[in-house]
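Lecture 7 notes. Example A: sequence first, then its structure tokens.
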Amino acid sequence: MNILGIGAHPDDLELLCAGTLACYSQDGHEVFMCHLCDGNKGSMVYSSKELAKIRRREAIESAKLIGAKSIWGGMSDGEVVLDLESRIKVIDVIRQANPDVVITHHPNDYHSDHINTSRLVFEAVYLSNLKLWKTNYPASNKLPFLYYMDTLAGVNFVSMEYVNITNTIDIKIKMMLKMQSQLGWLKEMHDCDAAEFIKTVARFRGFQAGVLYAEAFAQQKMYPQGLTKRILP
């Protein structure tokens, strides 16, 4: 299968679903990681232009750890809005990956970029499959299943499925640690140690799932899709 993760910022996928993406990769599936924003606002050290270049390099290096392809959405932080131009950009992201499964933010997450990314992906998954929607890429040939990843710290999230990431928790942390420009920012802004945060949330979800470490997901149920088998790892 082709698996596509779409996060708002560089580090969102790494924090919230990289363990699952690593599982998919280890099972032989092709993985794509898209960050819609260039991450150009999250620093007290760099200019926006400098930061965007740094975070692009970090995202590519992080994706390489699991053999994933990194896709850039080209939006600025804080500028993910619900308009036609943004919808078309997300359609093109999906068409590049031609995915069987799409994973993105939950609609109830804490950041407006996260919330709007979630909505744009919901709008685009169906439209990406329509040949008469003309964009820069040809229409995908399948309607992907859509899953929402956990929110930050699990706030306002009800889990429907879990993925055991006990064997991929270390690679998930390594992927996050590639985001060097964000580690200090997270500590200063949110008093958050990224590696500790990842392990704490994964251990809590693992406790719920009966394993050591887990990630939580909710499937977007919608017509005309039905699913009688598990497609998460």
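Example B, a different protein, same format:
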Amino acid sequence: MNKKRVLIGMSGGVDSSVAAYILKEQRYEVIGVTMQIWPDLPGQVREKEGGCCSLSAVDDARRVANHIGIPFYVMNFKEVFQDKVIDYFIDEYVKGRTPNPCIACNRHIKFDRFLKKALELDAFYVATGHYAHIIYDNQKQRYLLKKSAAVGKDQTYALYSMTQYQLEHTLFPLGQYTKDQVRDIAKKIGLTVANKPDSQEICFVDDNDYGKFIEQQLDREIKPGNFVDTQGNVLGQHKGIIHYTIGQRKGLGIALGKPMYVVAIDVDNNTVVLGEHHEVFSNQMIVEQINLISLSSLTEPRRVKVKIRYTAPEAPAILYPIEDNKIRVVFDEPQRAITPGQAAVFYEDDYVLGGGIIECSLNSN
């Protein structure tokens, strides 16, 4: 494989555009690629501004590639995206869980199928505009994933599932830059996307209405059921479990004279359990589908800091290995809205130890 050839995923945004420019400046043979992942969805979804999946993003990426002087291609990943991201997203919500489709996309598309395509084209690397560092530790003889210089933009949480092989074949050119520095570079070299807003919403869901999207994809109505309190008393009727997530207070469609929150979703009984604010907190959880980065296995308890969602602060905790590639996490302080289906990522200082998917929350007696 050609160690100077790299395929970079270009979304049409400022981050991947500047990443491509930096790689070229570093004398890599850079090939720009937009991954065509949009399935047969409504036109407004494919075209919405700022979306990494929009058709307009292809035009932006092509213009950037032409501007910085690199070849550009569009590659079709529609089928695997439907299978590994969209179908997974729908299935998780139907199971009463709250998935993170961006993490699924990273795991199955960007650093799996896209990497395989790069290797077929004799490229040694893939690259993206993620804010993160990859470092090789000679003592551990492992690749490590380190937080980026852009504290507020660090994206290591969404990259915890990367394998040693994937880390070896991946470049993150923006790891040492802040977002402001990236935009300044884009302006300096005359990129039209320099001030393009970041994509915030899930690219394949129109108007951020998950429930509507899921019902359309399933082509069937989701059955309503009962709201119940933590003692099992019926409080009213919900419109279908896919419309709710742990910790939710707004949009419940029920007035009970005091703030109430979703504390659990019971798929078997088609009920949504509501409770008061203190009932949303848990001090333990089980994490499954574990992937470790900075060590090969966890054989004894280990003190770390844990993020239970992308926007959550890191919380001190102890990891306890259990059977079936699972870990029991015991927090120093109870955490709000530990949500099945979301990722839990373990940190040691600025490095990602590993992570997994939250199976359930627990409370010690």
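Note on Example B: The first strand starts at residue 2 and ends at 9. Residues 22 and 39 are 31 Å apart (CA to CA).
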